[in-house]
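Ticket #4471: structure output looks truncated?

Reporter: J.K.
Steps to reproduce: submitted the chain below (267 residues) through the standard prediction queue, then opened the result file.
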Amino acid sequence: MANEKKKISLGGIDGAAEEKGSFIKTIWQLVKFLVVSGLVTIIQLVLANVLPLVFDGLRAEIPNFLQGIFAPNTIFDASVFTGSINDWLESAKTFMNETFTKVDTTALKAAKDTLGEGYKIMKTQVNTYVDINKYVNGFAIENGSIVSGVITWGYLLPFFLSNLIANIYGFYQNKKTTFKSDAPWYNFAIYIFLMIALILFSTWFQGWLYGVLLKAPWTWLSDLARTIGGLAAGFIQMVVLFPIEKFVLLKEKKPAEGEEAVEEAAE
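Returned output as attached by the reporter:
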């Protein structure tokens, strides 16, 4: 009974995989890594959707060295605006006044049916304007491009913190269960440095993808923009982190001299 219990435990599976050679052992480690990555992704997605509730109102601008990475015109697609934003605001105000006499579902349905494609374009423009106005200070739009403005921490922090917090959990979980490593503390410092660089890239990519999905013709796709962006960022990080953690940062601890013999005798 004791042997049977050992076989179905995580340690028993680890031992069985190791007995079958390094290739099978690596495959099993990859399976465990994917499970941990799944948990990391769940944490990240929850935080990415909750943290904007905390930080959306933060209007402080990101520092100069980040402004080149997170340029407004790269993140937000302003091509729906053919002229200046001020001209569009005036036309949008007129449009709303002429279209709606009161705010109710009947008026909204009538506008959709009557205006057709024009309504969809206006809806996309309004959604784009709301996001740009929320996350970019001092912006100006000319001929479909954001020609000035600075991204705020309110935009960057939810993406950045959701990645960092989730991956700190992933590091310790992989150290304990996936690779069974006794890596020194300074490897965690190296990991944080690496993660910051990786998160800056994936945050940029996540934000860029978020902007692209917001103008999708399907409402459900734009509604899931943050979630899809988080999944894409998580996939990029998983592909990069597994070989780095396995072969560099979280090398498996080697048994001390005589430890293997003691373990075998105990078995």
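Triage note (M.O.): checked the attachment and the full token line is present. The radius of gyration is 25 Å.
Status: closed, working as intended.
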